[in-house]
Amino acid sequence: MAFRDTTRQTALFIDGPNLFATALAVDLNIDFAALLNYYRKRGNLLRAYYYTALPERFEQSDGKSIIPLIDWLDFHGYTIVSKPTKSFIDSEGRQRTKGNMDTELTLDVVDLAPSLTDIILFSGDGDFAPLLKWVQRRGIRTTVVSTCMSKPSPMVADELRRVTDVFVDLGNNPE
Asked: In this structure, is residue 132 part of a structural domain?
């Protein structure tokens, strides 16, 4: 039986597209119910955020709709943070789509920081390294969940892996 530490105040921050790409890279199916249950059993889980930009037609690049996942997560205890993607024409004249959620995730971390002892970040995005340093200066323990084992290159930025207190590699067949 897992030890439940009620003195720890934890929040999960899941960069949805980044976790999706990481899971694909290591051929892993994420069980979001088990994930939430695992952190609830370990201590006081204050929030579990899932961030994603939603395309106008709500389809992932493989043609499958992301809406069933978002609805399921929302119904089962995750806080969904989303915004519409934006389309633009790149320098070569190709239609591109972007939907970065870094600012929203950062603001939620900053808002919750006074109530937390631990943050768990599911992302390999090196842009979050300064954020982790900021929360660490406030005495908050950081964990990054991503992978170094993807080919041809790691899904986690080296600066993010180096700055975090704990790094969990999804390529190591997590339980």
From this structure: yes
Domain that holds residue 88: 5-170
- Does residue 24 lie in a domain region? yes
Low-confidence ranges of the chain (pLDDT < 50): 1, 58-60, 174-175
Say how far apart CA 97 and CA 87 lie, in whole Å: 4
CB-facing half-sphere around the CA of 7: CA atoms within 13 A: 1
Global pTM exceeds 0.85? yes
